[in-house]
What we know:
The complex is a heterodimer of chains A (about 475) and B (about 270).
Chain A: H1 2-10, E1 33-37, E2 41-47, H2 70-73, H3 84-94, H4 103-106, H5 121-126, E3 129-134, E4 149-155, E5 174-179, H6 188-191, E6 197-198, E7 203-204, H7 228-238, H8 248-259, E8 261-268, E9 272-273, H9 283-288, H10 317-334, E10 337-339, E11 354-356, E12 375-376, E13 394-399, E14 412-415, H11 421-424, E15 433-434, H12 456-466, H13 473-484
Antiparallel strand pairs in A: 1-2, 2-8, 3-5, 4-13, 6-7, 8-9, 10-11, 12-15, 13-14
Chain B: H1 2-14, H2 19-29, E1 40-45, E2 48-51, E3 60-65, E4 70-73, E5 85-93, E6 103-116, E7 120-123, E8 158-162, H3 175-189, E9 193-199, E10 205-207, E11 210-212, H4 216-232, E12 240-245, H5 258-261, E13 264-270
Parallel strand pairs in B: 2-7, 4-6, 9-12
Antiparallel strand pairs in B: 1-5, 2-3, 3-4, 5-6, 8-13, 9-13, 10-11
Amino acid sequence: MRRALWLCVLLMPLELLAGTWWTADSGQAFPARVSYADASGVITLLATGGELDTRGHPFFSSLGKNGRACITCHQPADGMSLSLATIQERWQATAGHDPLFAAIDGSNCPSLPQQDSSSHSLLLNHGLFRIARPWPPRTPDGAPLQPEFSIEVLHDPSGCNADREFGLTSARPMISVFRRPRPATNLKYVTAYGYTFEPKDGLPLPLDPRTGLRYSGNLLADQRARTLDEQAVDAMSTHLQVQGTANAEQLRRIVAFESQLYSAQSVDWRAGLLNEQGAQGGPDALAQAKPGVLKSSRNPQWAEFAGWAREDSPADAQQAFRASVARGAAVFRDRTFLISDSAGLNSMNFGNPTRDSCNFCHNATRSGMDIAPGQVDLGTTNEPFADPAPDMPLFKLTCRSQFAPQPFLGRVVLTHDPGFALTTGKCVDIGKITIQSMRGLAARPPYFSNGSAATLRAVIDYYDRRYKIGYSEQEKQDLTNLMSVL
Amino acid sequence: MKHRRAARIALGALRPSGAALGALAAALAFGQAVTAPGPSRSFIACPIYRDTVNGRKSGCWLATDASDGVRYDVSLGRTKPQIGHEILVEGRVSSDRAACGGLAMTPIHVSVLETTCPSFTLPAEGFPGRRYEVPLNLVLPPADAVREPPPPPYPPRTWAIEFAYGSDFLQYQYSEVILDDIARYVLAAHPRAVTIDGYAATRGWVVSERRLSEPATLAASRAALVAEALQRLGVAPSLLKVSWHGNAQAEPIDDGLPEPSKRRVDIKMSY
């Protein structure tokens, strides 16, 4: 079996072994299928539109003044996101001169001395880019909203929230938060909506007047963009520092490229090929499957690995690992625990607490996203549940008396990232972060929007502590193994 | 008014809407026998969560009425309690106490109050809880399902959507089924107008020696949310005539519980 696995791996395109970094304007062709080694195996990207000539293509071209392209922060080898290891390697390889480290958001604050690695510490140590949100928040049309809360900066080692040019009291007031880049792949699962209504607010999802389709509500950590077009416009004006308005043809080509791109782990060093013995790992199944499907008894979550379930305890290491993955899927679906004090979950009419499993929230098949707009407060960025983060800004949000407070954290909330509330201005949305795709995880640590979990095991440990689950060591290992093959 | 009630009941038999259907569905969802209505009871209490483990969402909610010391099972409402917050319980008492260790109330409306109270959790203590299944008539088909419009004829219809006390939240696995029904019917029937009347219980009443009342603004926000929902479902804004009223009168909506019926939005179409 091992020999067969290695033969398969060796037959894959040689990007596995060659340099993996994609530079803006490189002009190299983007293959129809390409694979890269990562920490636990191989991630494969499938472009259903076939090989792409990237010369002049806006996803691969430096469109703005800082030399970056979309591809800079959405690297194929990292599942179209960016791992911390890649960031650190790039700093070493370029002495910090890669456009990746552009002052605008690749440093803790643009006003800091850019030649110092300490000015890029949040990116270099945590994989975090600066996201500057306008204060007060604005509607999608750009009109200012009257926020339901005031905001104070209690602590900010980045210095940016107190900066005269980029801070909260500057001429253009901004809140700087620091987040991981989301993967620009498998996007049909991000833009799909399974049902017309949003159970968290009881209303039908809003309609996009341009397309007649509804907004899925699942783009970006704070849902500041409703469509891939809006996301591209936002990214071009901020991360790429493109001057003026976005070119419609550029937007069309960017969205077209990323919409036909699928990626997933295809090989695991312990499990072998992830699409054999009845399993459906890898990007091909993702490309073929229907998005927006809610898990159910007919469509169980992570049924892709049901064929690996075993009644016995196989001695063979590969079979044992595969059995562990299948057990992990079962734990994910069936191991219930008390979910409590989580805005967006317990604030619906299910009650607080409510007994459910991981797939209460990660309920969309194939992606593990929330089939409804996935803005929930899992506690990753907020006191009291967030892991200590002394390198991050800490904000104090105080809800005005005439508005309902954050349902579980109260009227005064300490948070490293107000999340969705920076888009809506509402107290009930403080600390909510959009659930993201679970595919290709092995290629892009660290995890959570603020990079607070360095490993997949740390993700499990966080949830175990947050919800007092009491996972056994075996359950933790099974869940970690499951997540490593997605 | 009599005609209106009859129409509602008749429609209730045809479509998944209304509080009675919700309560019936809740009973069916948890495998309960449907029996004759029991005595009604309203009280305010601090909820207790009993952590029964019988699959997802299988936990029990208990609340003791201080006026008689009876512990009730208040798990069967559309809205579940929030631990650490008092609840207003309005419902009918049944004879079932096997599932959770309290006398089950059904139909039942639970409203979460802003007032806080201690957080109480009990272990299962041998009680099984109830397996949770969502009745099919409270689940809308997927967004991409091909659905035929309702067949003609299209006589004028009315609908009502109830709300929890003090809330304008459109409750999940209840409101959306009614809103979907309204929109599909209106889009097929092409009425001249759709009247949306929001109500709030502004006059107030006494429960557990405490006076409760709702602000009139709640009537407005309830009506506005229903109008917003119908617009998002494709109903032309020009059709919608939105108004709101305080001092709501009880309407014999479906389950016959008077106070919850004052917290509602009526939707009526006309040619």
